[in-house]
Structure formats: structure tokens, C-alpha cells
Design brief:
Helices cover about 45% and strands about 15% of the residues. The chain is of the alpha/beta class. The structure holds phosphoenolpyruvate and magnesium ion.
Length: about 600
């Protein structure tokens, strides 16, 4: 529910997922309201107005059916069913009769009559003390806007890649494929009704440095295009029509943030080493080849996770081996001699291609437990082989490593390794160069992988803990679902114990272990991860400098003490408070932006 601040401002509260503050005009994805005015008509024009109404309704029905089909295709029948409610509005006899009567009785245009009658209905529903009916208000307004647009033959297509003015995007949901296409210069920030901290849309927002708030629940119904808002990505707020005082206060926070960023620049070329001399490898996560430049700017020591699936989204065909090779070699060559860990395809879950020509299952009951990542690749072996060959070829031009996602059992690892050997043999006999000693690692993101970590460790050169999924699968909490976001708990003792077991197994077998999930991006988690013995942290490029700043102000001895405390503690809240306190004490200026 929106809250009113003492100033009278309306505040919507959600989950902060990407820091920063922006002020601007809302662009509501869906439709913007058109301005219609009352216009009277001659009696002779009546039949034409009724015909315009009919045409507008027909066109709207057509559009809604098309959208419904697209959504079914991309997200499944359940999500598409919301359009049934929209279609019902078009068949509502009371509404349609009311509109026709108004055109005839008051001799007004079809658009004015539809707009007025629909708005009257909406106000009546809005006043009812029934949540279900109130929800229908948004459907009604959406459809009315669409009908009026169609009567006026006014077509509006919002292409987020080519926006003309800066805006704050508000939507019920944004798929990662859409987020990946946002025009960074024009999208000042975004807010969605649904989503959690580790949804891929949230991860994209952080890497694009766009302030973002998710889990706002009803923002897309409460806000409309053109409204002035302030989005606070530190605290997860959207403030409607902010007062001068609010703008002034936020301006000060931004200034503090800027001066802190200058301080971070000063340590750009320094290593990530603790005060007592423990060296941590600090690398960065990338989603596309062009992000390599960001890694350098941020001072990252290579790429700890290249999420290659983004090469497969927003297109109608599969990327060829050659196209993939070009992308991988670009990153490898640009960062050479720094390592680039290329994770093999992790399609599925919330990352689905928007074309049927790439195999996928849009009707899964539990996509995160389904046909995803290594499971998908081992079944679609032609796709997997093309990617492995592309990665191997790129390894001739830099320090490339391969990493498999979602390993749940030994068999998946050995089968994947066999495929790599086959691809190597093919390239060898064709005389194509590649790194014969390319290192292979496994992501540890499923509890079963932790429990067999000794077996896995014998067969790989490194582990990288995917905490986003490890938390999801350990706690049985969907990482996308804002309703249970309070249960998504990185400091849950079970999660910390699993990280500890992974580190111990890795070190027993002489291999290193990193964290590439979002825990490595959260400043408050750094002392815990260091204390648990993690050797590498891989975070989004914009977070490399602050994470390095923290590491350089911590003592490993204190971190170990914290981890020992955490492993013996029964309360995740207490662990979190202790870890936060250690960071706040070591780097008090880090929290200048948030309050
Ligand atoms: C993870 O699960 O922590 C991870 C890094 O992989 P992804 O977020 O892409 O699932
Ligand atoms: Mg994962």
C-alpha cells in the first residue's frame, strides 16, 4: 500500500535492487493515457461514430489476442490468462450499451463516450471495498486506453532501445530479455510490481548501473506516464511528486555518493588485499562481450562469470559457433592475460529466448527446477558442442576457462568433460588452435553439489559458488517471488554451512573457490565470505571498486572470527547484524548514500 509521508507525498515501497537515485517522468509500459476532449457531432454523423466504436473494439480485440498469444509463448498460459480479464471488458454489455447510448443521447464522439463511460465505471469500482474488484479497475483503464487509441487510430509502440526522452520505466514485470535492451542513456531507473533481489532483471539493472526497485506490487496500477517521481534505489522507494525539500535531501545524498566515488578511483590500481595481508581475487561478472571494457574501467581482475545466455536472447535464431567465438575472443583478447571464465549456456528458469526457433519449454510447472542450464545443454548437444568449440577456439587468444552451471551430480560433470574432450579432438584434427590446458570449473549452486564436492573437486580446477541459486534451492524460495522475498536469506545458517563445506572440500583438493552470485555484490556479505575462506569474489563491474575498498579495510582475522561466530549461531538476523557492523566499522563512509 502507498504511504503518505509527513510532507503529503505518496510513497510506494518495494525491494531495492540497484543503488542510485533518479528523478524523472514515468513511462508506464503498457499504454499511456491519451488526452481526449468532449466534442459534439451532428446527428448525421451518428452512424459513423458507432462504426468507429465498432472498429476500435475490433482492433483492440485483435491486439489483445495477439499479445495473449505472445505472452503464452514467452511466459506460459498462466501469465497470459490475465488478458482474459481484458477481453471480458470488451464484451461487457453494460459498458458497451452505456457508450452507445451516450453517443446517441449526447451526440458526442465515440472516443469521448468510451473514455467517459469507462472512467465512470472505474471510479465506481474503485470506491468498492473489494480487492478483487479494485484490481479490475486497472484492467478496465488499460483496455479503455487501448480502445480510445484505436478509435483515434493512434498507435504507440514503446521501443525501449530507442527512447526519445529520459524516463523512469514502470512495468508490472520486465523480462531479462527486455532489460538487456534498455537504452542506458534514456532509462534513468525502473520499477516493477514483481521480482526479487536476484532475479536476472535485477542483476541486469546493477550491471547497467540503473537504479531499480522491484516488488512494488501495485506501482503499474498507481502510476501513469508523465507523472514526476523520484526513485530511490538505496531504500527501495518511489516518491510521487517529490517536494523541494525531498529533492534537496536526495541531492545531498547524491553529492556524498559522488565524493565517495572519487575516493574509490584512488584505489583503482591497488590489489584487493586485507589489512593483514590476505590477497583476494576480485573479478567481475559480464553479460555481453562489450562489458569487457567495463571490467577494465572498474579495475576488475578478469571475468569471474560470463553469462553467455544473453547472446541467445532477443533474436530469432541461434547464434552460430562463429558468432559466439567472436564474442568470446573479444573478451578474452581485451582482458588478456587476466582470466575470463566463460560459463556455458544457462538458458531456462527466467531466461527464455523469445523465439520458438531456439528449443525451450515454456509450459514448465517449475522452470527453476526444470529444463535449465547443463541439463538443457546435455540434451541439446548440438547447441552445447557449438558453444564448447567456440569457447575452445577463443582460448587461443586469451586466458579462457570453462565453467558449467547447475551441476547437481557427478554424471553431468563427467559427461560435459567428455564432450569437451571430443570438441578438443575435432579442433586438433582440423588444426584449429586452442589452449590444450584450458581449465574447467563447476558452479556450486545446488545443495547436492555441495554434498559431493569432494568428488567434483577431484575433476575440476576451481569452484564458483552461485549463491543466487544455492540460496533458492537450499531454502526452497523462488528467487523471483516478491511475496516470499523475506525468506530469501543469504545469512541463513544452512547457506553459510554449505559455503563452508564447499570451501573445505575445494581446499582439501588444492583448488580455489570463488563466489559469483549476488552475495559477492552485497557489501555486507564481504567479511562473512572472506571469513568462510573464499578465495575469489566476482561481482558486477560497478561494484568492484566499493567491494575492493571494503576488503582493503578489513582484517582477515576479524572476518574469520565473524565466520566462526556465524557457523555456531542459530539466528540469521544476528549474523547479518554482526557482518554489517563489521563493514560499517571498517568502512563507515560506504553507507553515505543509504539510510
Ligand atoms: C547464481 O546462481 O548465483 C549465479 C551466479 O548464476 P545465475 O544468477 O546466472 O543463475
Ligand atoms: Mg545460477
Amino acid at each position: 500500500m502507498p504511504q503518505r509521508a509527513a510532507t503529503g507525498e505518496t510513497i510506494l515501497r518495494g525491494i531495492p535492487v540497484s543503488t542510485g537515485i533518479c528523478v524523472g517522468k514515468v513511462l508506464l509500459l503498457g499504454l499511456s493515457r491519451v488526452q481526449v476532449g468532449r466534442q459534439e457531432i451532428a446527428e448525421a454523423d451518428l452512424p459513423r461514430q458507432l462504426e468507429r466504436l465498432e472498429q476500435g473494439l475490433l482492433a483492440t480485440r485483435q491486439q489483445l489476442l495477439e499479445i495473449q498469444q505472445q505472452v503464452t509463448h514467452a511466459m506460459g498460459a498462466k501469465d497470459a490468462s490475465i488478458f482474459d480479464a481484458h477481453l471480458l471488458v470488451l464484451d461487457d454489455p453494460t459498458l458497451l450499451e452505456g457508450v452507445a447510448r451516450m453517443i446517441a443521447d449526447e451526440r458526442v464522439t465515440a472516443e469521448w463516450a468510451f473514455h467517459t463511460v469507462a472512467e465512470r465505471f472505474a471510479r465506481t469500482l474503485e470506491a468498492l471495498p473489494d480487492d478483487y474488484l479494485r484490481e479490475r479497475v486497472a484492467d478496465l483503464r488499460d483496455v479503455a486506453t487501448r480502445v480510445v487509441n484505436n478509435i483515434l487510430d493512434h498507435h504507440e509502440a514503446v521501443d525501449l532501445a530507442h527512447l526519445k526522452e529520459p524516463c523512469i520505466v514502470i512495468a508490472h514485470d520486465l523480462a531479462p530479455s527486455i532489460t538487456a535492451r534498455l537504452d542506458k542513456k534514456m532509462v534513468l531507473g525502473f520499477g516493477t510490481d514483481v521480482g526479487g533481489k536476484t532475479s536476472h532483471t535485477a542483476i541486469m539493472a546493477r550491471s547497467l548501473r540503473i537504479p531499480a526497485v522491484v516488488g512494488l506490487q501495485t506501482a503499474s496500477q498507481q502510476l501513469h506516464t508523465g507523472q514526476s517521481v523520484l526513485l530511490d534505489g538505496f531504500n527501495g522507494l518511489i516518491i510521487l511528486s517529490p517536494t523541494d525539500q525531498t529533492l534537496f535531501e536526495y541531492g545531498q545524498i547524491e553529492r556524498r555518493q559522488k565524493s565517495f566515488e572519487q575516493r574509490l578511483q584512488e584505489i583503482h590500481d591497488q590489489p584487493a588485499v586485507t589489512l593483514d595481508g590476505a590477497q583476494i581475487t576480485l573479478s567481475a561478472n559480464v553479460e555481453e562481450a562489450s562489458d569487457a571494457a567495463e571490467v577494465k574501467i572498474a579495475g576488475g581482475e578478469g571475468v569471474g562469470l560470463f553469462r553467455t545466455e544473453f547472446l541467445f536472447l532477443n533474436r530469432s535464431t541461434l547464434p552460430s559457433e562463429e558468432e559466439q567465438y567472436q564474442a568470446y575472443r573479444q573478451v578474452a583478447a581485451e582482458l588478456n592475460p587476466q582470466p575470463v571464465i566463460i560459463r556455458t549456456l544457462d538458458l531456462g528458469g527466467d531466461k527464455l529466448p523469445n523465439t520458438a526457433s531456439i528449443p525451450q519449454d515454456t509450459a514448465e510447472m517449475n522452470p527453476f527446477l526444470g529444463w535449465r542450464a547443463i541439463r538443457y545443454c546435455l540434451q541439446e548437444s548440438a547447441i552445447f558442442r557449438a558453444q564448447l568449440r567456440a569457447i575452445l577456439r577463443a582460448s587461443a587468444e586469451g586466458n579462457v576457462k570453462i565453467m558449467y552451471p547447475m551441476i547437481s551430480g557427478l554424471e553431468e560433470l563427467t559427461q560435459s568433460n567428455e564432450l569437451v574432450e571430443q570438441c578438443k579432438a575435432e579442433l586438433r584434427s582440423a588444426g584449429v588452435p586452442f589452449d590444450e590446458n584450458i581449465e574447467i570449473g563447476a558452479m556450486i549452486e545446488i545443495p547436492s553439489a555441495v554434498m559431493i564436492a569432494d568428488s567434483l573437486a577431484k575433476r575440476v580446477k576451481f569452484f564458483s559458488i552461485g549463491t543466487n541459486d544455492l540460496i533458492q534451492y537450499t531454502l526452497a524460495v523462488d528467487r523471483l517471488n516478491e511475496k516470499i522475498a523475506y525468506l530469501y536469506d543469504p545469512t541463513h545458517p544452512a547457506v553459510l554451512k554449505l559455503i563452508k563445506l564447499t570451501v573445505e572440500a575445494a581446499h582439501r583438493h588444492g583448488i580455489w573457490v570463488g563466489v559469483c552470485g549476488e552475495m559477492a555484490t552485497d557489501p555486507a556479505m564481504v567479511p562473512l565470505l572472506l571469513g568462510l575462506g573464499v578465495d575469489e569474489l566476482s561481482t558486477t563491474p560497478p561494484l568492484v571498486p566499493p567491494i575492493k575498498y571494503i576488503i582493503r579495510r578489513l582484517k582477515l582475522a576479524d572476518c574469520r572470527e565473524l565466520a566462526d561466530f556465524a557457523l555456531a549461531c542459530e539466528s540469521s538476523a544476528e549474523i547479518l547484524v554482526r557482518s554489517q557492523a563489521l563493514v560499517a566499522q571498517a568502512a563507515p563512509d560506504l553507507f553515505g548514500g543509504a539510510h
